[in-house]
Amino acid sequence: MIPSLLSVELARWQFAFVACFHFIFVPLTLGLTWIIFTMELMYVMTGKQVYKDMTKFWGKLLGINFAVGVLSGLTMEFSFGLNWAYYSQFVGDIFGTPLAIEGLVAFMLESTFVGMFFLGWNKLSKKQHLAVTFCLAFGSNLSALLILVANGFMQVPAGGEFVWQTMRMETTHLWDLFINPIAQIGFAHTVIAGYITSSVFVIGISSFYLLRKKDVGFAKRSMGIGLGFGLVASLMVMVMGDEQGILAYKYQPMKLAAIEAEWGTQTPPANFNVIAFPSQSEQKNDFSIQIPKLLGLLATHSFDQKIYGVNTLLYDGYVDVVTGKEIPAVTTRIANGAKAYEAMMKMRAGKSSSQDQEIYNQYHQDLGYGMLLQRYLPVGESLTSATSEQINAAALDSVPNVAAIFWTFRIMVSIGVFMFLVIIVGLVLLFRKTLWEKRWLLRTMLYMIPLPWIACLCGWIVTEHGRQPWTVYEMLPTTVSSSMINGWDILFTLVVFCLFYALLFAVEMYLMIKFARLGPSGSFQNSQEHKRGN
Questions:
Q1: CB count, 10 Å around CB of 382?
Q2: pLDDT at residue 501 greater than cutoff 60
């Protein structure tokens, strides 16, 4: 049996809501820890009190964000077992290693040192406390790495193989799991996006003080560190984003086709759709504005490599860029996967023949595609009895929502370019010592604070929704991954989570705004050196 479509969709919405809410707090933690480390390093090197006050003030905002982030992440762990039972069984052997290391090493590391960071000022020397701050930053980024190793397996299942006797994935090469290029580049792209988020956060709040002519010396120093950190992070995230595009071209051609709204395969180098209005039902773009030849150069770094469109992948097949092998069309892989699935069921029941084993060995790589048919056939009916119409419907299910992916990607990129330009202008004016006079730019920096979070969430939508209909790419469809649980139960927990997270968000915003408005002068009223620094 497979779960009802209602329960699957509600489970997806619940996990998407929980994950997106939790991810509001992750980028700020990833980047702000390193910015605070930079500030404390300046304090250790110069001995100036203002840098210590900067470390403690931004650390206070980090502490608020860290605490709420931990609370919001706890429910994610329970979602796997409650709403995604077969998925948890399917990948449990793979996920167990990185997530266990994350919980026992990385999370404990950052949890331990976050306490030492706040309580150790009067108990540790300057260099010892600096080491604590470094360990806090390292632990938070190590935690992200291990989680993204697990996520990378969902994108490209390297380091494991499906075992038909247990109906689950089992680890074959632990090293391949950890060096999965999708995981490594995804980690770099994610944490650097967090660095930009933190930079914009520091820049925005510093501009607030400068606009109000409050804590000016503190704000100028914070602004300088934020702009410098943001410039480096912006350049790095562009490189990592380009690398992710190349990996999508190599390993996830359907996702790339959706990102670029490519329905047909153009003669290389392909044109780039700047603006398009994709029609999923008609499998074409109703309107588009293109830049000739640009997409081929961006996505493949060449002028002669094809970028396969959705319809080509569905009905014609393509040549794998990595292996050079011809990959059958999705419709063919679904039919072959149905044969492999039925042969596997006979093998598990002990009723197989040598021919069934040969069929399974020949088509087992397409097993996941065959499972796409399960929603179209009655329980117990052979998948090989599917009609051409059912196979075509299942093939269309393998295409993510093109319009959503296309526009979400462009929102992310547009925000990234805008923030990069603002940072560049800010640095130029900073070197000219006229930044403080440009109130229009300071206001722009203040109002820019929410933008990196929007860009980060858009990036995760492209990554995760672009992988659909798979929880494990080309191996486990989402429709068979969730638990056999009543949709109304999921809806009830979704409502409860919404209320709980609304409360957490209100607490976060209240505390952040309160202490940001209070500023360092309100936090360090007894610091005469801080007052002289301003």
A1: 13
A2: yes
Backbone angles phi, psi at 326, to 5 degrees: -80, 125
- Tell me the two tokens of residue 15: 């996990």
Tell which phi-psi region holds residue 162, choosing left (phi > 0), alpha (psi between -120 and 50) or beta.
Answer: beta
User: Strand 318-319 to strand 284-291: parallel, antiparallel, or no bridges (unpaired)?
Assistant: unpaired
User: Do 371 and 395 form a contact (C-beta atoms < 8 A)?
Assistant: no
Q: Which of 501, 512, 457 is nearest to 73 (CA)?
A: 501
**Listed residue (490, 480, 473) closest to 83, CA to CA:** 490
Question: Are the beta carbons of 514 and 112 closer than 8 angstroms?
Answer: no
- Name the amino acid, one letter, at 218: F
> Over the stretch 352-385, which tens digit does the pLDDT of each residue have?
788 989 999 999 999 999 999 998 988 878 999 9
On whether the CB atoms of residues 226 and 446 are closer than 8 A, the answer is no
Q: Please, where are the H alpha helices in 402-527?
A: 402-431, 439-447, 451-465, 487-523
Q: How far apart are CA 66 and CA 140, in angstroms?
A: 10
End-to-end CA distance of the chain: 68
Describe the chain by its helix, strand, coil percentages, rounded to 5. Answer: 75, 5, 20
Structural domain boundaries in the chain: 5-252+401-465+467-524+526-530, 256-327, 330-397
Q: Please compute, for residue 321, the number of CA atoms within 13 A of its CA located in the half-sphere on the CB side.
A: 16
- Give the predicted TM-score (pTM) of the model: 0.90
Coil, helix or strand at residue 178: helix
pLDDT score recorded for residue 2: 64
Do 329 and 317 contact (CB within 8 A), yes or no? yes
Task: Enumerate residues 6+ apart whose C-beta is below 8 A from 182.
Answer: 152, 155, 156, 158, 247, 251
> Rounded to whole angstroms, how far apart are CA atoms 432 and 429?
5
Q: Which residues contact 6 (CB under 8 A, 6 or more apart)?
A: 487
The DSSP H or E segment spanning 399 is: none
What pLDDT score was predicted for residue 524? 60
Q: How far apart are CA 307 and CA 446, in angstroms?
A: 40
Strands (E), 229-380: 272-279, 284-291, 318-319, 326-327
CA 219 centroid distance within chain? 31
For residue 460, which of 409, 416, 511 has the smallest C-alpha distance?
Answer: 409
**pLDDT higher for 416 or 80?**
416
